[in-house]
Amino acid sequence: MRRRTGHFPLLFVILLAAFLLAALLLFLNGQDRALRADYLASLTPTPSAVPKKVSYQYDNMTPAPTRMVIGPGREGELVTKIQQRLKELGYYQGEVDGQFGPQTKEAVILFQQARNMTADGLVGEETYALLLGGAP
Q1: Is the distance from CB of 121 to CB of 109 less than 8 angstroms?
Q2: How far apart are CA 10 and CA 128, in angstroms?
Q3: Which of 30, 73, 96, 99 could cross-link with 83 by S-S, CB 3.0 to 4.6 Å?
Q4: Residue 21: which residues within 8 A CB-CB, separation 6 or more?
Q5: Cα(first)–Cα(last) distance of the chain, in Å?
């Protein structure tokens, strides 16, 4: 009886190589996952009990705050308040409708003239403060 030993060792070597390759790939995949987890953890900020102080630096490109000016064409609750106050003081005779029109402008001019202000018919910060007492 002859024994066939030629194919058995070759098949064994191929299976062993496939097993080792699969083990290596699983190991590398696990390493890759660990590296990804470490990387993602590094991106997540650690919360702290004390907030960081924030300093704001402004350069010359930051526009200065604009002054409040209410004039013809404006509408709304602020104009309604101005009209009501001008009406209480006797400068505005029209309907209080919340629209800054010619009658409102004329009433503002009369109010400004009575207080020796620049009578431009616009409600700026100074006119608003004298009319309604304070900033809007």
Answers
A1: yes
A2: 99
A3: 96
A4: none
A5: 111
Between these two residues, 86 and 21, which has the higher pLDDT value? 86
**Is 90 exceeded by the pLDDT of residue 120?**
yes
Question: Burial level of 82, CB count in 10 A (0-12/13-18/19+)?
Answer: buried
| Residue in the block written with tokens 């001019």 | 109
Give residue 77's identity as a one-letter amino acid code. E
β-pair partners for 131:
none
Token representation of residue 37: 């987890």
Residue ranges per structural domain of the chain: 77-132
Query: pLDDT tens digits, residue range 6-61?
Result: 566 777 888 888 888 887 777 767 666 667 777 777 776 766 666 666 666 655 66
- β partners of residue 75: 99
Q: What is the DSSP letter of 102?
A: H
CA distances from 5 to 1, 14, 16, 26 (A): 12, 15, 17, 32
- Looking at domain 77-132, does it have CATH number 3.30.360.10? no
| Residue 135: half-sphere exposure toward Cβ, Cα within 13 Å | 3
